[in-house]
Amino acid sequence: MKQRTALRVVGAVLVVVFLALAFTPLANLMHGALVAPSAPPEPAGAIVVLGAGQQGHAMSDASLRRALHGVILFRQGLAPVIVMLGGPGEGPSAEANVRIRLAREMGVPAEALLADTRGRTTREEAAVSWEVLSPRAARKILLVTGREHMPRAAALFRQAGFEVVPAPVDELPAGAGRPQDRLELARGLLRELVARAYNRAAGYL
Fold it and tell me: What is the CATH number of the domain that holds 78?
């Protein structure tokens, strides 16, 4: 009896949370509390574009947004080199290599592009980026990733030895008004909160 009552209470709480996230500004308020506003980008020794995965044989929407933002920063003259990250996916080419081809097609010279496919997590990406860039004395970097991911990513890259200039990309529908957009925003924020909690528990942050 007690177990059944407890399950009903849990179910009722979940329904209330779902309705609050979908039909109130709660998700938007969470976003405002968890994501800090960013300053304009400034010159650095390199642009580092974090991986975001592939969808089949193509880059995911987030991966494309990050890659394009990295190219834009390069074309603004803010750094002499772009490091494209991203490991193997379902397609024949790793994400980093697909991004390199895109950047070449957009006019970025080959000598300004570096690809690294080894990092599977943000912490690993920070380590391989240091391995690639420290011989070039590129300690100050423009870090490109999703706005919600940026606080955790920047902290891990600073621990690796970098001076980080955040250059975030909007990937989630912040300020969403439709229920489905609010739920998408809430899922992304909760996923990032879990990742932050794991990294703290593991001693990475």
Answer: 3.40.50.620
List the one residue out of 79, 65, 74 whose CA is nearest residue 164: 79
What are the φ/ψ torsions at residue 48 (nearest 5 degrees)?
-115, 120
pLDDT tens, residue order, the chain (205 aa): 666 676 666 566 555 555 555 667 666 666 666 777 778 899 999 999 999 988 767 788 999 999 999 999 999 999 999 999 998 876 668 999 999 999 999 999 999 999 999 999 999 999 999 999 999 999 999 999 999 999 999 999 999 999 999 999 987 766 666 777 777 777 878 888 898 888 889 888 8
Half-sphere exposure of 12 (CA within 13 A, CB side): 6
- Provide the token pair at 183: 């739920």
Q: Could you list the residue range(s) of the whole structural domain that residue 11 is in?
A: 2-35+174-201
| 50 shares a domain with 17 | no
User: Distances in Å between the alpha carbon of 60 and those of 42, 52, 192?
Assistant: 27, 7, 18
Do 84 and 105 contact (CB within 8 A), yes or no? no
Q: Strand 113-116 and strand 54-55: pairing?
A: unpaired
